[in-house]
Amino acid sequence: MTTQVPLGSADYNQVLEWLYREAALLDSGQFESWLALMAPDISYEMPTRQSVYPKDGEGYSHDFGFFAENHASLETRVKRLGTEQAWAEQPGSRTRHFVSNLLLDQSDSGEFHAATCFMVTRIRSDLPYDFFTGERRDVLRMTDDGLRLAKRTILFDQTVLKSYNLSIFL
Amino acid sequence: MTSSTMTDTTDFAALVDEERGHISRRIYADPQVYDAEQEKLFRRAWCFLAHESEVPNPGDYVERQLAGERILVIHGKDGVIRAFLNSCRHRGMRLCRADKGNATFLRCPYHGWSYSSEGELVSVFAEELYHEDNLDKADLGLIPVTQVETYKGFIFGSWSAETPALTEYLGDMRFYLDILVARTPGGVEVVGPPQCWEVHTNWKFATDNFTGDNFHLYTAHGSVAELGMLPPDPMALSFGNLIQAHKGHVLHIVPGPPIPQAEYFGVPMELRPLIEDTLSPQQADLAKGHAFSVGTVFPNLSFMQVMVQGDLYSAPTPFLSFRIWQPTGPTTTKVWSWLMVEKEASPEYRKATYEAYVRTFGPSGIFEQDDMENWEECTRMNTGAVAQRYNLHHGMALHVPADRDFPGPGNAWPGSYGERTQLCFYGEWKRWLTMEEPWA
Asked: What one-character-per-residue DSSP string does B340-401 give?
C-alpha cells in the first residue's frame, strides 16, 4: 500500500529538494558526489521503447534497454569519467536536468515513490542541442545520511535515440 | 545504372586503392557517393531485415528499412515470412505505422484498402464504384521485396532479381556465421527489440571499425584500459587472425587468456557440449580456441562476439550482438543493434549477457559511446574540400603473408592487428559501385 504525499508537505519538499540537488550535481560534473546518493542496492534502468498501437501497450521492453545498472556498474561509469581518455565526455557535455511534475507516494515501509517528468538538454562541442525527455520513476529511501536512491526507472519518450550516445546520466 | 564517374570525372574506382591501402576521404562524405551506394549497393546487395524470432507467430510484423525505404516483414497466416514495401497501392500511404505488432489484415488508414498477411489486396472501400476492368485486385497486392531469403533465422532482402541466391552471396562466410549463430541445436534468438540510435557519421566508419579493427581498443577505449578492464599489455589482443571469409565478408577471431572460461567464446559450460555436437569438428575447434570475433557481412550487417566485464568487479561475460549500419544520408547513419542469445540459454545467462552488453556496448555502453565520438568527428573532418585532397591510410600489416594452414575457409592472416580486412571490404565496395555484376 502507498499513500499520497501532498504537495507542500515537509516530505514532499524534502524529496523535491533532493531531486534538485541531484540535478545540480549531475549538471556540475560532481559524479562522485552523485554516486554517494545511490543506495548500495540501487537499480538504475532504462528500457527501450517502440512505437506500437494502443492495444499493444506503451511499447516498453521488459527484456532490453539502454541502462541496466547496479551500484558496481554506476561506480564503473563514474570512475571512467574520471579517467583522461573518456572521449565521449572529454571535453565534457554541458547538461541541464529539468525535473518537474513531482507526484509523490509513500509506501508502508516508508520508501518514497517519486514520479517526475524530466527534460535534459545536452550540448557537446559546437553541436546542436540534444533533448532527452521522459518520466523517472524513483524509489527513495531515508537513511541516517539522508535520502538515497534505491531504484530509478527511466521511461524515455524517444523510440530512436536522437543522439549518438548516452554518455550522461538521466 | 548511373555512370561510375563523379561530376568532376573522378572514377569511383579511383577512390579506393586497396593495394597501397589508400582510401579517399570522399567516400565518407560525398553526396554522389551516397547516391551511387543507394543505387548500386543497397538496392542490389542482400541486406539484413529481421530475425525470425522477432516475428514468431502468424500475423507478427516488424517495420524495417531496405535501401532507405520502409519495409514490413510479416509472418503470413500460411507460415511464410515475407517482406513488402510498407506502402498502400492506392495513395502510397504508410500502411503499418507501428514498429511491431500482430495483424490479421493490414488496413490502410487513409481510404481503407486492406491487405492479407500474405500481401494480397483483399478489399477496397466502395468496391462497387469501380468498373471491373479498372480494379485488378490480383495485380494490386503489396509490393514485395524482390528477393527474400533466410539463413539460420536471419532474414535478408534484396531489391535486385539479378543478385545471386543468399547462400551463394554469403559463400564461406556461412562457415563462420554458423559458429556464432548456429552452434546449438536451437540457434540464437533476439533478446528484446533492437536498440536504435542516430549517428552523424558515414556508415562506412562503423563497418570499418567492425571489419577487424582490433587495434583501436587501447586508444579509443583507453578509459576502460585505464580502469584495468582490458589486459595491461596493449599487444595482448593482437593475436588470432584476420579473415576474408568470402569477398567483402570479413572478420577477426581472437583467442582469450589460456583458461577454460575463455574457451568457446566464454559461453556457459552447460552449452559447450551442445556446441561440440552441433558444429563440425573444424568449427568446434575454432570455437574452443577463441574468445572474441568481430566482423561484417557485406555490406552493413556487423557482429561482435566478445567477453567483457560489465563493471570493475564482475567476471568477463560473453555477449553476441548484431548491427545494421543503415545509411540515412551521406553523413548520417541509423544504427540498429540486437542482442542475441542461444535458445537453450538459462534465465541466469540471459540476464548476465544482457547486463554485460548494455553496460559496455550500444550508445550507453562504456566502450561504444567513445566509438561514436570518433566516427562523428572523422566524418565531420572528412567533409572538408582541403581534407579531401589527402587520402586516408589503411596500411597496417599488409606485408604479412597469409596463413596457409589456417583451419577455416577463405583467406586468413596471422595476427588481429592489421588493416587487411578493411581493405577487403573497401575493395568489394568498389566492385559494387563500378561493376555491372560484382558477384561474377
From this structure: EEETT--HHHHHHHHHHHHHHSSTTSTTHHHHHHHHHHHHHHTT-TTGGGS-EE--TTTTSP
Q: Which three cell numbers stand for residue A114?
A: 517519486
Amino acid, single-letter form, for residue B374: N
Instruction: Select from A51, A56, A164 the Cβ nearest to the Cβ of B198.
Output: A164
State the pLDDT at residue B10: 85
What CATH number has the domain bearing residue B393? 3.90.380.10
Binary contact (B354, A167; C-beta < 8 A) = no
Q: A94-119: per-residue pLDDT in tens?
A: 999 999 999 999 999 999 999 999 99
Q: What percent of chain A has pLDDT over 70?
A: 100
Q: Is residue A159 less than 8 Å (CB to CB) from chain B?
A: yes
Q: If we measure between CA atoms, which residue out of B138, B136, B155 comes closest to residue B147?
A: B155
Give the three-state DSSP class for B88.
Answer: coil
| Cβ atoms < 10 Å from Cβ of B411 | 19
Q: What is the CA radius of gyration of chain A?
A: 16
- Chain B touched by A128 (CB under 8 Å): no
CA distance B191 to chain A (A): 6
Contact state of B100 with A62 under an 8 Å Cβ cutoff: no
Q: Are residues B197 and B107 in the same domain?
A: no
Q: Chain B within 8 Å of A73 (Cβ-Cβ)?
A: yes
In the chain, the amino acid numbered B282 is Q
Residue B244, CA distances (Å) to B61, B173, B295, B342, B391 in order: 34, 8, 10, 26, 24
Residue type, A37: L
> Any chain B CB within 8 A of the CB of A92?
no
CB contact under 8 A, B192 and A163: no
CA A168 to chain centroid, in Å, comes to: 10
- Both B361 and B254 in one domain: the answer is yes
ipTM value > 0.90: yes
Query: Mind listing the pLDDT tens digit for each residue in B106-150?
Result: 999 999 999 999 999 999 999 999 998 899 999 999 999 999 999
In this structure, are B235 and B142 located in the same domain?
no
Q: What is the pTM of this model?
A: 0.97
Q: Is residue B389 part of a domain?
A: yes
